[in-house]
Amino acid sequence: MKKIVLLVFALFLAACNTSPEPRTLRLATTTSTDNSGLLDTILPAFEEQFGANVNVIAVGTGQALKLGESGDVDIILVHAKTREETFVADGHGITRADVMYNDFILVGPLDDPAQVANSSLANEALARIAANQSTFASRGDDSGTHTKERTLWQAAGLADPPEGDWYKSLGQGMGDTLRFANEVGAYTLTDRGTFLALRETLPNLSVVVGGASITDNADESLFNPYGVIPINPDKGNIENELSQEFVAWLTSIETQLAISEFGMETYDMPLFYPNSDAWNEQ
After folding, report:
1. One domain for residues 215 and 245
2. Which of 13, 26, 21 is nearest to 73 (CA)?
């Protein structure tokens, strides 16, 4: 009888201690939001508030869009606005919401062999790099940065991709591409946030086009907006409710404020600038 009572009591305690399993949000996002450290800074607040786990899959924008299209993630946070709008128009995502922006910059060797540091426009600088056949490192991974790079080559009136051994298509993320450029003395296009976050490990690179901060960047073609898109629940097995909660949280004044402060202490400038409707309507 004593054993039976103890067993019943143990079962009672187990029932009392049962708590629902935390929901998991599968987020496909760019390497820039991951490499910069932004997500590590802001996501714990979401996970605590909503009792959820966020599974971050950091890939290029093109791969993130493919994961969304196949229904292998619940939500995407990317930076290739035209492609994002097409993604939603084709029914893969519910809607697109502005989140933040930063800018692209062109970085290169300290001795600037193509003499592009006095260029005000990125396409002009790329034309000089091609003419000089200075080494250029491309991510070559269908990311948002790679998409922007391709449009700049086209704007320069050059082949896409350029021809010649000087052009290196790596198929790598932003961090690895920057490290390669630093090692071999190459130019590359990068988002400012990732470059600033890794700057201490890139002693051989400097900004050659883009200014000291985003406000100094005179080339509007280098503007880099980020958008968040919940995946269409019709694809099945999609955490639609949690995705909608994530969008509302990410675009809220509180989270936008956290984004605006990220990087200030270390770099004396934010790595990303808030851009949600709620933030802009203040």
Report:
1. no
2. 26
Query: For residue 224, what are the β-bridge partners?
Result: 102
Pull the structure tokens for residue 83: 């492609």
Same domain, yes or no: 88 and 191: no
Same domain, 123 and 186: yes
Q: Cα(first)–Cα(last) distance of the chain, in Å? A: 68
**What distance in Å separates the CA atoms of residue 178 and residue 151, rounded to the nearest whole number?**
20
CATH of the domain at 47: 3.40.190.10
Residue found under tokens 């019709």: 234
From the list 189, 231, 234, 223, the residue with the least C-alpha distance to 84 is 231
**pTM, full prediction:** 0.85
Q: Which bin fits 259, alpha (ψ -120 to 50), beta or left (φ > 0)?
A: alpha
Instruction: Report how many domains make up the chain.
Output: 2
Residue type, 50: F
Domain termination residue (choose one: 173, 207, 222): 222
* Residue 153 lies in domain: 102-222
Tens of pLDDT, residue by residue over 181-235, are: 999 999 999 999 899 989 999 999 999 999 878 888 888 999 999 999 999 999 9
User: Measured on CA atoms in the order 105, 216, 218, 79, is the torsion positive or negative?
Assistant: positive
Which pLDDT tens digit goes with each residue over 23-47?
999 999 998 898 899 999 999 999 9
Nearest alpha-carbon partner for 38 in 198, 212, 194, 176: 194
Residues 74 and 162 in one domain: no
- The count of residues in the chain is 282
* Same-domain status, 112 and 191: yes
